[in-house]
Design a protein that fits this description.
alpha/beta, 18 helices
Amino acid sequence: MKKTLFLFLLLTSFLPLLGQNSYSLLPKPVRLEAKTGVFVLGAKPIIAVASTDPALRRMAESLAGQIGLVSGRDTKVFAGNFRVKDGINFVVSKDVKLGEEGYFLEVSPKRIVITAENPKGFFYGLQTLKQLMPAAIFGSAKADNVTWTVPCCYIEDQPRYAYRGLMLDVARHYYPVSFIKKYIDLLALHKMNTFHWHLTDDQGWRIEIKKYPKLTEVGSKRKETMLGHYNDHKYDAKPYGGFYTQEEIKEVIKYAQERFVTVVPEIEMPGHALAALAAYPQYGNNPDKIYQVATTWGVHENVFAPREETFRFLEDILTEVIDLFPSPYIHIGGDECPKIQWQESRFCQDLIKKEGLKDEHELQSYFIRRIDKFITAKGRKMIGWDEILEGGISPNATIMSWRGTQGGIDAVKQNHDAIMTPTQFCYLDHYQADPKTQPIAIGGFLPLDKTYSYDPTPESFNAQESKHILGVQGNVWTEYMPTAEYVEYMTYPRGIALAEVGWTPKNLKNFDDFKQRLEVHKQRLDYLNVNYFGAPINNKFTYRWPLKK
């Protein structure tokens, strides 16, 4: 009797954990009601799509293919406005009232039903469903000894913020298209919807511009790359280069669109322009100077000259960028623009007087306003880093606040939209553990719990002001990330924490709960071969710089 009682108590003590693991969803949904029982995937599963929308059909076919691959079950997709028993149903309803990204998910022993207004909602409902399934659903081969069940539940879900993004810097280090796609896949899995592609900087120009071929012929290559930390002043003496053709960019954009991820391109100006000036020196402040693509990190004083021919050059570039990218936003950088060359330029000083500007900060605003006007005329919206506030904000600009939160606050106070990405919470190039145990990083310390603790909307904001906070973004600057595996190591799991910051209501967030769900989620990442911090595969690749002892 005592032994039986002991076993009963032991089992019941684990029930809360087992239940929690059954619903280890990331990000956490708005409402989840656990139900008794499970849905058992039959020998010949059916997916019924109550819509002729090709996007829904594509999602259903993808799910069917994945189920077939990992379970060996012959899974069929049918079109029809009915709810099949023992199957998965996509039901379109205009009464969902959860917005374009919201969905309902019902799992009962009889059937699974995803209900949404449009494909975005179905896509996110599908991500949730896959996370409810055994982790092997994320595998790339048939999985043996897996019980293919889904725990019964009822879920209502929609995002807190409209903009939920990750940035990847490909200027400092270039990554193949295959990895860009994987980066987008991981964004989508965690219900993030924006890929900010940092394509140009002092150390490399990575986008083909057909009117100006030297941008990639010259600007995409540097003669060597720094070794070790910036302060070490060591170089590898190896030429480095790479860029994305316009066809490759179209391929990436199409891939992202199928996963409801918007690709926002960034073309840096007026600073961080050295790679462009190495190709076309006539657009610099010293046109007779021989520029070279930067081999050191940091900020360089060579910036674009605000001449009419420079604006024509940049407008030509932006025209090709806008023609390529359907994103409503075009990011123009605007950060860390040294003013010394403008101070020393007679042309710039005369322009300041001619335009009635106060100083070089207002000259930068003049520059940004010109670009803003051009982008607006093309039917797009301009994003800039928070330095574009200095000297006066451009009329249609959205601010990306990185030097803390004040830039976003100032933008909102001036009735502008803001995307929050402050360094102290969102810069994933910072150390995530004791630097003595980690591969080299730019510096700083950003552990998982601090990233998770971030709230993009300042407590002092009223309801109207809060509407101007579009969302949150994590930034992955890659000076010290020479490989794709290194990027994954620095991005995850902190990127998942930011995904929950962007999706889940503030009152539902709890870090201890997040950590428990994350432990289960790591099994999914393992199947996806993600080299997250602490992953079993960490020892399968070589960092450029060995771990410090």
